[in-house]
Amino acid sequence: MEVFASMEEYGYEQVVFNYDKVSGLRAIIVIHDTTLGPALGGVRMWPYQSEEEALFDALRLARGMTYKSAAMGLNLGGGKAVIIGDPRTDKTEELFRAFGMFVEALMGRYITAEDVGTTTDDMDIIKTCTDHVVGLSGTSGDPSPFTAFGTFRAMQACAKYVFGDENLAGRKVVIQGVGNVGYHLAQRLLEAGAQVYVADLSPDKAERAVELGAHAIPCDEVYDQECDIFAPCALGGCINDETVGRLKTKIVCGSANNQLLEDRHAQVLAERGILYAPDFVANGGGLINVSFELAPGGYNREQSLAKVSKIYDILLRVFQIADERGITTAEAANQMAEDRIRKAFEQKRIYLP
Ligand code: NAD
After folding, report:
1. 307 among known catalytic residues
2. What is the domain range of residue 13?
């Protein structure tokens, strides 16, 4: 991979390779863009097959964080870190201490948090070496209920746009994946009177949602269900050439990251008359929640929920931009984020004594 070429093309600021002899830590920290503020993004621990694969993942994820923070109206930039290793077997105290020291060395340009393969316990160790860490135990807590609330508000915005009424009572919603986020989402939807259908590879997870009042369906049938909303809450890439033509829904709105396998699938959805809620807008609730740990007065649950609730307005603005500019909702969300960053950048030319 031509790293500098990629940095130039996508505007990355900094890529840092970190190695610690004592613990064997091999970590890459990527800072994509800090126009709006320090780069916040989790640290993922994963048994990458190659350094190139780890670097590619860190670059991709860091850039995604820039867009998500900007779209959520946060004064944060985008960054991400990856630790090469198996989270089940390779975790040690020294490893996370070393990582914390490298985060500290960036003097606040990058703020870390938990991600796939890391936990609040790991963040607590990192905290012994740096203050530039959020998602500690006893603070903002599990982000999933906040992500689910944001996705629920996104669904209400979609319903308002498509049906002229945000009320989800009686609407049929199919949730793919009822893990941490999907479960809380199912709960909110059932409370709102929606008919909820769920599918999960894990029968236990599906059963948990059925106990709430949802109906279980086989995993391979989610794309073929006639419904109002299809909610991908499992893995990325679920909207692809094989699935997009099968959808019989009016709306796609879920929490999964990178739902579209390729950008062009947004166009296919639009042509099929299906409204797509861009994933990084619909799933920004967890990021908003953890960002409140950085608020001057410290974490405040009510303020956090109030801000997550605004995902409703943010998404309606995305749809408005898409209509005005004649572009897909995915492009509109990107442009909305880029517009905010560009304006902040242009205003930075004013000298502040
Ligand atoms: P999770 O691992 O708890 O849940 C995912 C569930 O999907 C699991 O129960 C799994 O069995 C199921 N699953 C996987 N493949 C499936 C398939 N093909 N069909 C049906 N079920 C399948 O993860 P989570 O924390 O609930 O996150 C869900 C998605 O939302 C992920 O894409 C994640 O990146 C994204 N997300 C989560 C948060 C958060 O706060 N947890 C924030 C932003 C984005």
Report:
1. no
2. 3-62+77-127
Q: How far is the CA of 236 from the centre of ligand 1 (A)?
A: 9
20-67 residue pLDDT tens: 999 999 999 999 999 999 999 999 999 999 999 999 999 999 999 999
**CATH code of the domain covering residue 54:** 3.40.50.10860
Extract the tokens encoding 344.
């902040």
Same domain flag for 158 and 191: yes
Catalytic residue among 21, 68, 80, 248: 80
Task: Say whether both 56 and 153 belong to one domain.
Answer: no
Q: Whose CA is closest to atom 8 on ligand 1?
A: 179
Threshold 0.85, pTM exceeds:
yes
Cα 343 to chain centroid distance, Å, stands at 23
Distance CA 72, CA 291 (A): 11
- Say whether both 212 and 93 belong to one domain: no
Category of 189 on φ-ψ map: left (φ > 0), alpha (ψ -120 to 50) or beta: alpha
Query: Tens digit of pLDDT for each residue in 235-252?
Result: 889 999 999 999 999 999
Instruction: Give the total number of structural domains in the chain.
Output: 2
Alpha carbon distance 47, 54 (integer Å): 9
Task: Give the span between the Cα atoms of 197 and 192, in whole angstroms.
Answer: 14
